[in-house]
Hints:
The complex is a heterotrimer of chains A (249), B (334) and C (262). Chain A has 249 residues and is of the alpha/beta class. Chain A has helices at 45-53, 75-81, 98-106, 115-125, 141-153, 171-188, 199-205, 223-227, 230-236, 242-248, and strands spanning 5-16, 19-30, 34-38, 60-65, 68-69, 83-85, 159-163, 191-195, 208-213, 216-221. Chain A is built from 10 helices and 10 strands. In chain C, a hairpin with a 2-residue loop joins strand 1 and strand 2. Chain C has helices at residues 2-32, 39-57, 65-87, 92-114, 139-161, 163-173, 175-180, 185-207, 217-232, 237-258; strands spanning 129-132, 135-138.
Amino acid sequence: MLSEQILKTSKLTKRFGNLIAVNQVDLEIKKEEIIGLIGPNGAGKTTFFNLITGLETPDEGQVIFKGTNVTTMSPHTICKLGMSRTFQVAKSFTEMSVEEAIRVGAYNRRGEEEVQNKVDWALEFFELEDIRDNKCSDLGLSSLRKVEVARAAATEPELLLLDEVGAGLTAAELLKLMSELKKLNQETKITLCVVEHVMQMVMGLCERIFVLDAGELIAEGIPSEISNNQRVIEAYLGRRSYSESSSTG
Amino acid sequence: MNHKKNQNLENLLLLFFLIIALVAPLIFGSNQYNMLLVTTVLIYGVMATSWNIIGGLAGQVDLASFAYLGLGAFTSGTLLIRFNFTPWIGMILGGLVAVAFALLIGIPLFRFRIKEVWYALTTCALVEILKVIFNMWEEIGGPVERYLPYFSGSLYHMRFGSYVPYYYLILGMLVIALLVNSRISRSKLGFYLKALGEDEAAAEVLGVNTRACKLRALVYYSFLIGVTGAIYANIYGFIHPSFFNGQESIKIAILGIVGGRGITYGPLLAALLLVGTQELLRASLGAEVSGLYLVVYSVILILVVLFKPKGIATFFQYRNKKPAKQEVKKKNVV
Amino acid sequence: MEVIIQSLFDGALMGCIYALIALGLSLIFGVMNVVNFAHGNFVMLSMYFSFWVASLWGIDAVLTPLITFPLLFIIGMLVYYGIIDRTLKEHYTIQIAVTVGLMTFLGAITQLAWQSRPRALSYSFIQGSIQFGGYTIALSRLISAVISLIIIIGISFFLSKTWPGRAIRATSDDSDAASLMGVDFRKTYALAFGLGSSLTAISGGLLMTFQQVDPTMGLRFGLLSWCILALAGLGSIPGLLISGLIIGIGESLAMSFLGSQS
């Protein structure tokens, strides 16, 4: 049961004119795993997320989610099947309150009678109760990030994709978020796939890591394997030497 | 819970308005000119409130309201003229015809990645195209007014000797439009519409079928306008291609935006203020005022949009300042 | 058959002028993603200005753009800084609303100023017609079409060879990157809006050599421009020209067969 596949991409490719953003990526995620997806800026990670959630259509390849071919399905259908995500540039519902924003997600699986329960659960789980009535546009960064996660989690997905939720957070906020995500994975059995630049988060949270560079999958393995992988180190060289952050992470 | 306080105030104001509206005919009743005036104001109120469903809640600028009005009018009116068919059912059919045309544009244009502007433009074109078609369509339309059979008091034909019964019909439509607005905003559809208005991509990945939601809003809106169109025909006693008025359709959109997109009673407020004033001025200054008033409308729109984009109804709403402060405090502690 | 070919000629010539009008719109929509509902009314306004200037000072319609071009440019910049600039950060319905308001405003004041009856200029030195293989071609239309083509090509050069022109293109591609290169995107937007609006002055002046103007024409030009833009897509000037020709010919054929209803 635990080693059952939840997501598989085969030869996934996306071109924008002459630029190959995602190049023949073969990737497999198993249920209840916490997966990390890392790579230098511009490696194609967000495009990859867009492809599997249906926001963009690949030029080649397939996306199989829970055994179903979702390659050309619309995002809302994919969400109904059990996949949701957050966005790198927070797409918050600025005019809505925290509670209202989460409610939008909760309606995915709940009818009018039960939806409030789900909203309350999310507010409690992510410790957002105090600010439930605040407008999303008034929130500080770490609360905003949590609302994004809470909103997506309220859809009751089986696979949750998180796009750089750690960026810009303080060390304390980061630790808090990481523990909440771990708890989410353990209690609700949601599979997590995390795109991150903050190495501390990736190394501390993920069981397996995939590395993208210039649209290609260049490495795959457990954290210790990745941190010693020559190709990975070279990919990051010139931006931020990976060996620096591994000593702090 | 500022929300609750807000709602109570708004509900009270609305109730107050409805009571006044109910007794208004007792004051004006004898003066047919004034009755027509207030009825006209209410018609704009109904249309603007219905527009709110597509323009305010769903965030699609629709410039075709009079297209649907005209379609409703022509459907019901033609059935009455030719087949002596009662407008009480004719108006439902009028609504359905309006819905059919609305879906004709909505289905292709509400697909996920198509920009809103194309919908706005197409609706703008729709009114004009329909005007031309009905002008050329000799059997149903044609350049001359087609008069509905006259009765001084026939319930079956929905024709009355005074404007008062029509006034109550329109008031009834207004109440229905307000209720529909209110129910949708509180429901799942309302939340989904608000979300997709904020960010379509974010809404989609949260399970919102953006296209279906917009289409549902469109159906509610066009149906309400279509039904109103049937009543409109009966009020004026004739049907004519000039009903397909692009300028007035834009006015309805202006009322919806100036009043407050998404606020149930906002467009009604704008209608009462703007159309009310215009009609009063027209009564004293004559028909000349229409051209001048259009200038006023457009200037008000631009001013409101620049300085109070949420609409004039927000003058009645509380500001939620307290909770935000608490948030900042928490951050410092961490 | 003869009617069709005559319509083809007339339509093609009109198409060139329509393409110029659409070009102005394309500059605005392409660069700053603003849907200028008022564009058609700018054309109409230009025509009225041309009429006014020509009547006032007795100059030929063809020369009026010398005055109306800078006038519309200034008006365009004013509109940009006064209105459009403030709405850039707002919800898209606000942006649509504000240009719809502008469209209504322009329509209303031209109606007040010049009333509903059509206005026309009586004489232009490019009047007259020539015969071409048995078909009549109005000289004014021909020259207008040629001038429109010249301007379109000129703008094309401007966009690719001059600094402001390339700033416009860069900003429309990626305003963040462009600003990193030293392009003030707001100034560029203002320039694009001003230019897009002032191009209507040229078409307006040309149109006044053989057409009349009334307050309802704004809508017609607006819708035509958007049809051309929808067909052509953004970014391609040759595409714009071809769409212009198609629309022009289409309109001409429709008018021949259906009478002057629309």
